[in-house]
Specification:
With 340 residues, this protein is an alpha+beta fold. Helices cover 36% and strands 22% of the residues.
């Protein structure tokens, strides 16, 4: 059963006014509900066994994280809240770092993320983030991401294999991931070398570079269908990622690629206030909105690392879907009123 999609004059994606009724008998959406529930229950169990605490956090913030810095490709969503300038949260990672000072083994949450740029086949204006922050460094968070993704994928195969196979046509991509003894890992510099100067694979932005979706897909085809790329150019990532070398050229970060490309982003943070303040200046970001964050690190220095997994992107891979906008039960598009 198909769902009616309207194409606007500018080529945008917009569901019909009857979509909420049309999807009720569509097997895709019944399976999406099952898988959303699986993500929630699996995530809760995963962190509970590790003693990592769930935080209940607001969706508003004055300290945006992802849409900030020279290399950011996303935009914040600003709102006027009773006369106060604020933002709908792109992430509450900073509060998870705060939570690590209250919960010794770390903190996690699952909540919406709001972005201001246009949506497309692989990017939503509002999506669900599964995020966590733990004590330790980059290697520690990569290890926990590997375990988390493997566990969820195992549950999908154990409990939902038939439904997934009927929609995706196969479950080979799931078993292929689980057969890997470990997820291969290369640095950004190694990725650039492997891509051999392909002008469509990387972009040069002054003194830093970024990897394109085309570049990610080439790496997945030519290196491994599940792949970590680490140590990106520091100016291409947010200021809060730690430095990967003494020259401050690279970052202690990593993206886990599979399916459409980046599904998980992670990184090790600056330990103290002085490091954070220096990174803000390096990225030409005003300290005004991050004064509390700098003070926290100054008064309570701590080595932590964290990650964010895009839930709809993960489910898009599981279900073999080509357009992430079809993974929403209730679509939300910037500048468009959609009911319900």
């Amino acid at each position: 059963m198909s769902v009616t999609i309207e194409r606007t004059s500018h080529g945008g994606w917009r569901p019909s006014k009857d979509r909420f009724l049309e999807i009720l008998d569509n097997p895709l959406y019944r399976t999406i509900v099952d898988l959303q529930d699986m993500v929630t229950t699996s995530t809760t169990g995963f962190w509970s066994r590790r003693g990592v605490k769930s935080l209940h956090l607001p969706i508003t913030t004055g300290s945006i994280s992802s849409p900030m810095g020279l290399g950011s490709d996303s935009l914040p969503v600003e709102v006027d809240l009773f006369g106060e300038r604020t933002f709908l949260a792109d992430s509450m990672q900073f509060m998870l770092e705060y939570g690590c000072r209250l919960s010794p083994r770390g903190a996690w949450y699952m909540m919406p993320s709001f972005r201001g740029e246009d949506c497309d086949e692989s990017h939503l204006n509002q999506f669900f983030h599964s995020e966590a922050e733990i004590p330790g460094g980059l290697d520690d968070v990569i290890a926990v991401v590997d375990a988390y993704v493997r566990e969820m994928t195992s549950v999908v195969l154990d409990q939902h294999a038939d439904a997934v196979a009927s929609l995706a046509g196969t479950t080979d991509h799931l078993t292929q991931m689980l057969k890997l003894e470990s997820f291969p890992r290369i640095t950004f510099d190694e990725a650039v070398t492997l891509l051999g100067g392909d002008p469509l694979a990387t972009r040069q932005h002054g003194s830093w570079r970024t990897l394109t979706r085309h570049g990610e897909r080439r790496l997945l085809q030519e290196v491994s269908p599940v792949l970590w790329v680490t140590h990106y150019d520091h100016l291409s990532v947010p200021f809060y990622q730690g430095y990967g070398d003494a020259e401050r050229r690279t970052a202690l970060n990593g993206d886990l690629l599979f399916g459409l490309g980046e599904i998980v982003g992670c990184g090790e943070r600056h330990v103290d206030g002085a490091q954070t303040r220096a990174a803000l200046a390096h990225h030409e970001v005003s300290e005004d909105s991050y004064e509390w964050y700098v003070r926290m690190k100054q008064e309570r220095p701590m080595r932590t690392s964290g990650f964010g997994l895009g839930i709809e992107r993960y489910l898009m891979w599981v279900l073999g879907q080509r357009d992430i906008r079809e993974l929403q039960l209730a679509p939300r598009l910037n500048g468009v009123t959609i009911a319900p």
